[in-house]
Specification:
Layout: H1 7-24, H2 26-34, E1 40-43, E2 46-49, H3 52-61, H4 72-77
Antiparallel strand pairs: 1-2
Length: 85
């Protein structure tokens, strides 16, 4: 039988998760906190998105360079062998 966590147990788990994530990626979470008032923010080649609808729009409207260096398409275009570099 599975027990359902109480409200205080859920709050403690969220705090623990937040602490683990912010300590492992401090710059990322700092940027997310600083840009949370904007739906979408571009930082260089990186796009920070807040919310499910802006996320869907970013996935479908931002053009991708599928033949750039370091991508699967770029490796295939140059005839690069997989795994060996």
């Amino acid at each position: 039988m599975t027990t359902v966590p109480t409200g205080s147990a859920l709050r403690a788990a969220r705090r623990r998760d937040r602490r683990v994530y912010t300590q492992s990626h401090p710059v990322l979470f700092g940027l997310l906190a600083a840009t949370r008032h904007r739906a979408v923010t571009r930082v260089g080649g990186t796009v920070l998105v807040h919310g499910s609808e802006p996320y869907r729009q970013a996935l479908t409207r931002i053009p991708l360079n599928r033949t750039a260096a370091g991508t699967t398409g770029g490796g295939g275009r140059r005839g690069k062998k997989w795994g060996g570099g």
